[in-house]
Design brief:
Blueprint (H helix, E strand, L loop, with lengths): L4 H26 L3 H7 L4 H15 L4 H22 L3 E2 L10 E8 L2 E9 H21 L10
Antiparallel strand pairs: 1-2, 2-3
């Protein structure tokens, strides 16, 4: 069944929220200091991913290549999620000749400039990719799926 763009956007945002929860739980699980862990979970996601990478390397038996792939994938999804979450959506519900698209725009001194059009199929691929990443994260580091308490 072909899902509408707005449903796909919602699923992607939901998956990304779950991935952030796994990152935060992992930081708490791997930290020796609960106060510092609590502060780390408030940092921007890009910094949390850097910390997660280091902690997984230093404090787990997860293979190095699996850690690198996981963290690189988390960062890629983070960037794409921001493109989806912070840009206008053009919906084709009323006009079948207009493709369902997210217009990625950047604002500068000259005003708004379209930098990319993210079509429905690309968002659908991101939903699948984020779902696979959720499962891979939990397989590599099962404590991430717990509430983060020692």
């Amino acid at each position: 069944m072909r899902q509408p763009l707005d449903v796909l956007v919602g699923r992607l945002i939901h998956h990304c929220g779950a991935l952030e929860l796994l990152v935060n739980n992992s930081l708490i699980q791997l930290s020796y200091d609960r106060i510092l862990a609590a502060e780390a979970t408030k940092a921007p996601l890009v910094r949390r991913i850097v910390s997660l990478r280091r902690l997984l390397h230093d404090r787990t038996d997860v293979p190095d290549d699996a850690i690198e792939t996981l963290c690189d994938s988390l960062d890629a999804i983070r960037k794409k999620r921001n493109m989806v979450a912070h840009n206008p959506i053009v919906s084709a519900e009323r006009d079948p000749d207009v493709p369902e698209t997210i217009l990625v725009v950047r604002y500068g001194s000259e005003g708004a400039t379209k930098t990319h059009e993210m079509h429905r199929e690309e968002v659908a691929d991101l939903v699948t990719e984020s779902n696979v990443l959720l499962r891979r994260f939990i397989e590599l580091f099962p404590p991430a799926a717990t509430d983060g308490k020692h």
